[in-house]
Design brief:
Blueprint: E1 12-18, H1 22-33, E2 38-42, E3 55-57, H2 58-66, H3 70-76, E4 77-79, E5 83-88, E6 93-98, E7 110-113, H4 115-127, E8 132-136, E9 139-145, E10 150-156, E11 159-170, H5 177-182, E12 198-200, E13 211-213, E14 217-221, E15 229-231
Parallel strand pairs: 1-2, 1-11, 2-8
Antiparallel strand pairs: 3-7, 4-7, 5-6, 5-14, 9-10, 10-11, 12-15, 13-14
Length: 232
């Protein structure tokens, strides 16, 4: 992994993006394609290896198209052919959504994907850009507003350092350091379904997955199976 000293240009940027997940990487590429100097800091040394998001809709597909990554995204995703359905152990439908066809943005209404694979595509795309720098294992520890923008204080393998930027964008998830440092509150609307979604990779000889949760309702998924099976 390259150190900060090998990225002296990273000490100033037009935009400082915090978080190198799909949102942060996509934003950095969009800004980079428009000629802006972008630095991303990510507190984790490596990308998270398990899928969390598993579907994107046609509006997100159009964003990927604007990133210039249409072929790459189509190669790692699979359009939902008909509908997405959850059933309980008695075969009763709990949730059914028609995801067939093409949406108004010209992409499938919904597409399945694996988040780690998607992040690799986005990471390679920004790595090829001279005006986008990604610094991993670097944590934002402070923000100071200036007349021209902000000064962000960071801590990484080489110790503490600062970066000046015109704009700061927090793309660092539910446990956002940016939101905490700015004192921005968040309203938690809680989970709106009465089941828990998990991801599991099945061997070819295994039967459809069934998982059980308190108070003992078992559910299996119906049609629209992606590359990973999900139950609750």
């Amino acid at each position: 992994m390259e150190s900060l000293r090998q990225h002296s240009s990273a000490l100033s940027a037009d935009v400082l993006v915090v978080g190198a997940g799909p949102v942060g990487l996509s934003l950095a590429r969009l800004l980079g394609l428009r000629g802006h100097q972008v630095t991303i800091v990510e507190r984790k040394a490596d990308a998270y290896p398990l899928p969390r998001a598993v579907v994107f809709d046609d509006e997100i597909g159009r964003i990927f198209q604007n990133l210039g990554l249409t072929d790459e995204i189509q190669n790692i995703s699979q359009a939902v052919p008909d509908h997405y359905e959850w059933r309980n152990s008695q075969g009763q439908t709990l949730l059914a959504m028609d995801w067939s066809g093409t949406g108004p943005c010209g992409w499938p209404i919904e597409s399945f994907f694996s988040q780690p694979v998607l992040e690799n595509v986005l990471a390679r795309a920004v790595a090829d850009m001279d005006n986008v720098t990604v610094l991993r294992n670097v944590e934002l520890t402070g923000i100071q507003e200036t007349t021209d923008g902000i000064v962000g204080t960071c801590r990484g393998p080489d110790g503490p350092w600062s970066i000046e930027a015109r704009f700061l964008v927090g793309c660092d998830g539910s446990r956002s350091t940016v939101r905490e440092l700015l004192g921005v509150g968040m309203t938690d609307l809680d989970f709106r379904y009465d089941w828990l979604i998990v991801d599991a990779s099945l061997l070819p000889e295994m039967p459809p997955i069934r998982c059980r949760r308190s108070p003992g309702k078992a559910c299996t998924r119906g049609s629209g199976t992606p590359r990973t099976s999900r139950g609750n």
